[in-house]
Amino acid sequence: MVHVKGGTFVPLYGSDSTPVKVQSFLLDVYPVTNSEYLAFVSKYPKWRKSAVKKIFADENYLRGWASDLSLGANATKINNSPVVNVSWFAAKAYCDCQGKRLAKVEEWEFAALASETKANAANDAKFYQRSIEWYSQPNPTYLPPVQKSFRNYYGVYGMIGLVWEWTQNFNSAMVVGESRADVTMDRQLFCGSGSNGAKDVKNYVAFMRYAFRSSLKSNYTVANLGFRCAKSI
């Protein structure tokens, strides 16, 4: 894990410009890989393909795996690739068993603002363009190894350009300031007129992430959705 120094940032979405405070936290360097998740299900049988309850994961859970304890003929190609087709429940259980937790939305977004050289690259046109280009690309047949992904200022790999990632409070439509509560979220955020009051309407990638998260349910599994763990300090 790496240390992400806390601070404040203004979310690039939503209807106000209230700064969000993020406490320092620890974040996994890489998303969880297939081989790491295989070790997890080997130790905890209730999270295997054939055993997981449908209330905790839909029918596509670990869809690319050959069986409960086998990645199949393509194992050498995907051992070090991020595990996908895992539900929020499964991701949370994995992190819990490591003595960790899923990152909060505000923590994930705060860390994802970092480019290779800047802790906050929100105004870096090149960094923004790279994000846009990745979100516009179809999924590759095999996801690349996590070690070959983009490394940011904090030493975290793959925040952009690898997979979407589960967050602890993914079903909160937006990050809120200390003066607001999740129950008062801006419910117009993803409506046609919802972006009119956004802090930075050009940041389409932030809207994409929040729109995607808001479409999820805890037992959903998606072919390009993985996770990594965090830890409070």
UniProtKB/TrEMBL annotation:
Sequence ranges assigned to domain Sulfatase-modifying factor enzyme-like in this UniProt record: 18-231
GO molecular function terms noted in the UniProt entry: formylglycine-generating oxidase activity
Listed InterPro entries: CTDL_fold (IPR016187), Sulfatase_Mod_Factor_Kinase (IPR051043), SUMF_dom (IPR005532), SUMF_sf (IPR042095)
Xref: Pfam families: FGE-sulfatase (PF03781)
PANTHER family: FORMYLGLYCINE-GENERATING ENZYME (PTHR23150:SF19), SULFATASE MODIFYING FACTOR 1, 2 (PTHR23150)
Protein name (record): Formylglycine-generating enzyme family protein
Organism listed in the record: Pontibacter fetidus
